[in-house]
Amino acid sequence: MTSAHDDGSPHAFDETDGPADMNGSEGIDGTEGMDGFDDADDELDDGPDDSGPFEGDDSLDNDLLEETLRQAAAIMDPVPAQLRQTAVEAYALYALDTRLAELTFDSLVHGLPIRGAVDAPRMLTFRTDELTVDVEVTAHGLMGQLLPPQGARIEVLSGPQLTSPPALTADNLGRFAAELPVTGPFALRLRTDAETVMTEWLRA
Prior knowledge:
The protein is an alpha+beta fold. It contains 5 helices and 10 strands; from the N terminus they run ααααβαβββββββββ. Strands 1, 2, 3, 4, 5, 6, 7, 8, 9 and 10 form a 10-stranded mixed sheet that branches.
């Protein structure tokens, strides 16, 4: 009795049927059966990418931190009113009607030491384009002269003060003097008929 195949061969094996039945899919490599996994990978790829940094977050956080620290400092360590006033007066240098007199000579820097001299006066010279202010500072006060000679009101500015700064008056020859010891940082503000001049700040 022969088999169902008429060629008489014993149960010939069909190569195209076996792999399909074994893998449950088309093709021998089984890739067609992995379509479900490929779709899942595509969905993951389409999601938001959290790996990169967000631009602008750092600057936003820094601004918020700076504002928080500023508010905390204003509550825990407020700026004294007199110190604030001094800062406002210093800012007057930038006013259009105030000119800066630059330091051009300081005996502590440019002067020659005098042998045997004790508590030698400190000589200072400030200049603008039109005005020269010569000042002599001692332990007892200060004196000086304006060139060209002219009258002026001179205010001696220093650190935070509870009252208005002391004022001097330069006569018509430009001379001024006062028994006013100068300590710490100081500057002179001169008000003439023509302009307001302020010297650089120095430490006595």
